[in-house]
């Protein structure tokens, strides 16, 4: 199931951002994103995979964050998520079974039921967790997306390549040095 996943479709509030919506005095929406999720998405795209954002709300914060992460397929203000999900599949010529959808609320259930791999963050509502194939240990906006990406890339044998380019930069001998925590007898 996981080995053929190449498209990741993400809800925004409660998934890519935490579920809180902060409004300033001018009514501008402020959202909290997590840099581990952002970096994970960069690894995901670098692995040759695709990503899209599908949100019920329209906000500048969401479109700005998507642009920052290099996600071009951005669908905001979508009340009925299933037709938009189908549109995204068509856009990427992807099948539902090769797609992972991450959602946290009831509106996400229809696309989650279609997706080959459905993921819910730890703080998703119970109904969503029940239809998910996997519930992350991390919450929405707090590493749930990173965890999903690491899980899939690890399964596909691609995560090691992601980490190797950083590990290889360790000064020689450092990696071989005894680590009293890791190498405890
Ligand atoms: Mg949501």
Descriptive account of the structure:
The protein has 185 residues and is an alpha/beta fold. Helices cover 35% and strands 14% of the residues. It has a single domain (2-164), classed as Rossmann fold (3-Layer(aba) Sandwich), CATH 3.40.50. Helix 1 (35-46) packs parallel to helix 6 (144-155). The longest helix is centred in the N-terminal third of the chain and has 12 residues, at 35-46. The mean pLDDT is 93.
Biggest sheet: strands, sense, closure?
Answer: 6 strands, parallel
CATH topology: Rossmann fold
Widest sheet, order of strands: 5-4-1-6-7-8
List the domain count as a whole number. Answer: 1
SSE order in H/E notation?
Answer: EEEHEHEHEHEHEHH
Question: Could you say what the CATH architecture is?
Answer: 3-Layer(aba) Sandwich
Q: What Rg is obtained from the alpha carbons, in whole angstroms?
A: 18 Å
User: What is the CA-CA span between the terminal residues?
Assistant: 37 Å
CATH superfamily: HAD superfamily/HAD-like
Stretches where pLDDT is under 50 for at least 5 consecutive residues are: none
Mean pLDDT score: 93
Count of DSSP strands: 8
**How many helices does DSSP assign?**
7
Q: Which ligands appear in the coordinates?
A: magnesium ion
User: Helix amount, in percent?
Assistant: 25-40%
The amount of beta strand, in percent, is 5-15%
Shape estimate: globular
């Amino acid at each position: 199931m996981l080995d053929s996943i190449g498209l990741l479709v993400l809800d925004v509030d409660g998934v890519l951002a935490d579920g809180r919506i902060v409004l300033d005095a001018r009514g501008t929406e402020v959202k909290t994103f997590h840099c581990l999720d952002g970096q994970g998405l960069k690894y995901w795209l670098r692995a040759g995979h695709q990503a899209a954002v599908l949100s019920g709300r329209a906000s500048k914060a969401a479109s700005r964050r998507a642009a920052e992460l290099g996600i071009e397929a951005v669908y905001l203000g979508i009340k009925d998520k299933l037709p938009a999900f189908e549109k995204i599949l068509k856009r990427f010529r992807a099948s539902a079974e090769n797609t992972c959808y991450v959602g946290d609320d009831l509106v996400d259930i229809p696309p989650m039921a279609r997706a080959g791999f459905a993921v819910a963050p730890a703080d998703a509502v119970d109904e969503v967790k029940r239809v998910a194939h996997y519930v992350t240990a991390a919450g929405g906006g707090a590493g749930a997306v990173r965890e999903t990406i690491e899980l899939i890339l690890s399964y596909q044998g691609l995560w090691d390549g992601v980490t190797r380019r950083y590990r290889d930069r360790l000064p020689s001998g450092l990696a071989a040095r005894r680590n009293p925590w890791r190498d405890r007898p």
